[in-house]
Write a structure and sequence with these properties.
2 copies of one chain form a homodimer. Chain A has 12 helices and 24 strands. In chain A, helix 6 packs across helix 12 and helix 7 crosses helix 11. Chain A is α+β, with helices and mostly antiparallel strands. At the A-B interface, strand 10 and helix 8 of A face strand 10 and helix 8 of B.
């Protein structure tokens, strides 16, 4: 049923073309105004004496300062602003089997920071503050289905991390439920197959980050039955299934665990809160928190007016990046089995020091101008077209980030690519990646974003 | 080799009786003096203006205050002292195969807080401060074997948590290595089989916590070969092997993950540092940090003089409990397979909100006098003798805790024991427990202590 959904793009309810034009139409219909305003003009928000920016309710999220010390690469010590939201939100997709095919109830959702205002989003996307109505809107649609789901109706239910460089230990509950009863399809919602969503992920900025992270947890090979066969899959799809089920791996999971244990034990990461007003290299003006050299990102305050949200108009801080990023996995067949080149990456907001990241994860401008480019950066950027399997711009969550995009790439290595890797890199089969993915805080959101875009068709 | 080691107690180097008398002899030989002294008399330690107690080097460990808010059971808010040691230490056992049997190089180690001064300890037990010589002693014995171990010589290598009610997010690297070369056996070290160590765990306070946590990660069933057979095992041992290898489980791992995700998302745990001098219900005198009602535990300062340690005499703070504790697993055969009754327990110092704990984990005095006794407490305390499989007093780590003991129990449920459980409890086969145990911060140290004592002989 899931596998059929994955391989099906013919949807009696909405064709893929229809979905695209529906999103375009929604984009034309809704009026979104995002106006940058001084911090002190943000209704319901205030600055504390230390410069941090908080919601008047004390909940929702805050912009605070952190002091970071780590000894990775070399001794490093810096301060930076970060998003603090110490509560677990729901990212939920409601599904239903119709004529043997699984359909996902997806939402055309507008977020102030989205590059395309409207993106395809999960059925439910709600912070705890959201659904306990701190935001003074009404209860989120379909919340009840998730809160009351029985174990037998839960397909997937995982705590997964958000961006470790921007969020302080933030996690969300990624959940997919399957209901049997009829579900009312509200305005802004449409049924889509997994195959359609995967197809749409190959367009720039059309499927939002939350959809991608939820779907990344679905281990496709778990749902293959002899009846489905592999024959309707592409050769690449079949190779990915093989990599998901094989017992062969170039490096054993025991060795991966030891490798990661060693790295987490070897490198320190000390993070403490500090005043936003006391962050060397950063300044807080009445309109932004920004670095003197204007690198990395800045914090701005905005007034948002949107026509079809719970609350029609509100103010909030947003993170605005200074440049785009690159997230790329290199894959290589080892003894006929695809292996992913995985990086253990330390980021200041990580829940557990290091998470498994794509081969390359960096800010493009920084990388280009840096004396020492990130490992494998040149290899990815110079990959010939025939070795590039995935290449699309994907947005970060538009509720927190203003026009933040990362180029997501999947690149197949050539035959001469070395098997020997630097300390913080390893090879994993897709089966091994999914093994880690099931447990909290192993794969970072950038890695999950690319995994979710793997297309089997 | 491992399984032979497990089932072997005949040790050509040291019989179990010899080991016991060796420990007794060491206890007689060494002179250990632990004298409680005022905090300000502790050499190399000082109190900060907020009342926290720190080592002059800024490393090692500190006693700090934390402010805890959680909404589990009901809204709760309290402050307490806690041990802060934000670095990962080594707990390492060096092993070697001799005549087809695996031997562990164990140490008769003295710790100031041990109930029996000398306990059987891992080959290596070293904090990062320790082995980078902050403690101004010499480098720990055998450290090099662990630091330079090659992947193929590493049997097990995991980050595991310490006591969540006493340590702030503390973890250690639990590692077992197997060497091929001859290893010098230093004074205070002896070769022991796994079977011998397991046997000694059934004595009170003889095998230290660090040994128990390291060995808990060894999944015995991984090492059974057809040649070893199961025939030299006890019926209980064979049942445990069955529970470790079976695909059957009363509740699926997917459901366990969902259950835990739900609990971690549902309950908040906010922990912030606060001044030791500002903790309602607690007072700091010149000699202790203690509650007004003298409950739970207190912090004391001691001067330690020991004859065979790296440093012969030193001062340090210790945690002294006000009462003993109880840690008990209830097990029950469901469809012929042993399942453990596992609790998801929130503790303030947990790295990840909740960890999997024994069925009952509490302070005995508190439980007895409380209006509402912990779930299953009475069941365990009233278990008839023939249903008690393990029952021994085990010490917590004597380097931080003064005479802290927990009664470790394994109790088999009777036929009428209900399968339906309260929200925070579930059934797991041993196979499922080991699945979680491989990954960081799932099984708490109390649960691991009991798992390590499972005897297959």
């Amino acid at each position: 049923m899931i596998i059929k959904s994955l391989l099906t793009e013919s949807n009696p309810f909405n064709s893929t073309v229809d979905i695209k034009s529906w999103i375009e139409q929604r984009n034309r219909e809704v009026e979104v105004e995002v106006e940058q305003i001084p911090f002190e003009k943000m209704k319901m928000w205030h600055s504390e004496s230390d410069g941090s920016i908080r919601h008047d309710s004390g909940r929702f999220f805050s912009i605070v300062g952190i002091d970071v010390r780590t000894d990775i690469d070399s001794m490093q010590h810096w301060r930076q602003p970060i998003i603090l939201q110490p509560e677990v939100g729901y990212l939920g997709i409601l599904t239903k089997e119709i004529d043997g095919v699984l359909y996902c109830l997806m939402q055309a959702k507008i977020e102030p920071g989205n590059v395309n205002c409207v993106q395809i989003s999960p059925t439910l996307q709600a912070t705890k503050s959201n659904y306990s109505c701190v935001h003074s809107g009404k209860a989120p649609n379909y919340l009840g289905y998730f809160v009351n789901a029985k174990p037998e109706n839960i397909i997937l239910d995982q705590l997964q991390s958000e961006q470790g460089a921007r969020f302080m230990r933030k996690r969300n509950r990624n959940i997919i439920i399957k209901v049997d009863e009829d579900v009312p399809v509200l305005e802004d919602f449409h049924w889509m197959t997994l195959g359609q969503i995967k197809e749409l992920m190959h367009c720039d900025n059309l499927v939002n980050m939350d959809t991608r992270t939820v779907l990344s947890g679905l281990k496709i090979s778990d749902y293959i039955t002899p009846l489905d066969g592999l024959k309707s899959m592409s050769e690449f799809g079949r190779s990915m299934i093989l990599s998901s089920v094989t017992n062969y791996s170039h490096i054993s999971t025991r060795d991966h665990l030891s490798w990661l244990t060693n790295l987490k034990a070897k490198y320190d990461l000390f993070v403490n809160f500090c005043p936003v007003n006391d962050m060397p290299g950063w300044k807080k003006t009445d309109r932004e928190i920004v670095r003197d050299d204007e690198k990395y990102f800045k914090i701005i305050g905005v007034n948002v007016t949107i026509s079809n949200r719970e609350v029609a108009s509100w103010c909030q801080p947003l993170v605005q990046p200074m440049q785009n990023g690159l997230c790329a996995f290199i894959i290589k067949k080892i003894n006929g089995i695809y292996h992913f080149l995985v990086q253990a990456k330390l980021e200041c907001g990580n829940f557990d020091v290091m998470e498994l990241a794509p081969t390359v994860q960096c800010l493009t401008g920084n990388a280009e101008n840096s004396a020492k480019k990130p490992e494998f950066y040149d290899y990815v950027m110079n990959a010939p077209k025939e070795r590039i399997i995935i290449d699309a711009l994907q947005s970060e969550e538009g509720g927190r980030f203003y026009h933040e995009q990362n180029r997501n790439m999947l690149v197949e290595a050539d035959d001469n690519f070395p098997l020997e890797l630097p300390e913080r890199y390893t090879w994993m089969s897709l089966r091994q990646i999914y093994k880690f993915l099931r447990f909290n805080n192993y794969l970072n959101i950038q890695a999950r974003s690319i995994i979710s875009a793997l297309n089997y068709k």
